[in-house]
Task: inverse folding
């Protein structure tokens, strides 16, 4: 019974590590998408200076200027969310790294525990010494699971922060993006008589709208996938396996 419990414990750790591998991959994709968002909302060609340099006496240019100025106002706020997202993802990577370490350490403790159990089964060692060693190892495993629970809560908090930052960026950019989309789809945007500077900014706006929209959609999907990875369940099951181990160890001691 003890050997079955420690084997199940190790299998649970292996499954958890697989989930962490998935989260790590998602984290890399989130960071890359976050960088694309920062680039999209902070185009060097679309600035207050380039917009103010347009000919405001031309009513077509004036309309474009108003839309671009609205975008620039929201750009700073969206940039703040992109920076926040970058910071949160860095913290998430750190948490995943600490969790990996704790799982690797728990694996070592579980392997050592299994070795002592096999020695008891084979009668190849002093039962009292082996049982004492197993008790110490179970205490270490309990401490490890407690720390893993802390990492789980921290990861859940960071996942929520990531989702919030993405949602806020989406809300902030929704109206200016929609207005710019109306402009880029209008006949004025493709008017060959539109001044060259305005045409260039119009093309920049079209690219910005397209890139930011697709990137925000990617970020939302990635954040949803992060939430779907359940890393809370393993800690409950690990504790159940440890309880079974302690009960089996107690029964063995009483039998002796």
Result:
């Amino acid at each position: 019974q003890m050997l079955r419990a420690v084997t199940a414990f190790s299998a649970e750790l292996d499954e958890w590590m697989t989930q962490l591998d998935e989260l790590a991959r998602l984290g890399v994709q989130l960071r890359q998408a976050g960088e694309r968002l920062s680039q999209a909302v902070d185009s060097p060609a679309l600035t207050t200076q380039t917009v103010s340099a347009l000919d405001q006496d031309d009513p077509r240019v004036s309309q474009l200027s108003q839309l671009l100025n609205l975008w620039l106002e929201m750009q700073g706020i969206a940039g703040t969310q992109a920076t926040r997202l970058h910071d949160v993802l860095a913290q998430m990577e750190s948490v995943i790294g600490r969790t990996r370490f704790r799982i690797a350490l728990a694996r070592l403790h579980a392997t050592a525990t299994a070795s002592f159990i096999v020695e008891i089964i084979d009668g190849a060692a002093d039962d009292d010494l082996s049982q004492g060693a197993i008790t110490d190892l179970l205490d270490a495993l309990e401490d490890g699971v407690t720390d893993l629970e802390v990492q789980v809560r921290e990861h859940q908090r960071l996942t929520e922060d990531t989702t919030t930052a993405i949602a806020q960026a989406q809300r902030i950019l929704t109206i200016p993006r929609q207005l710019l989309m109306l402009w880029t789809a209008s006949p004025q945007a493709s008017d060959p008589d539109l001044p060259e500077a305005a045409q260039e900014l119009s093309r920049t706006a079209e690219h910005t709208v397209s890139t930011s929209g697709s990137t925000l959609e990617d970020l939302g999907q990635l954040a949803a996938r992060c939430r779907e990875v359940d890393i809370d369940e393993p800690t409950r099951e690990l504790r159940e396996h440890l309880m079974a181990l302690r009960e089996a160890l107690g029964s063995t001691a009483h039998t002796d």
Q: What stands out?
A: The radius of gyration is 28 Å. The longest helix spans residues 59-122.
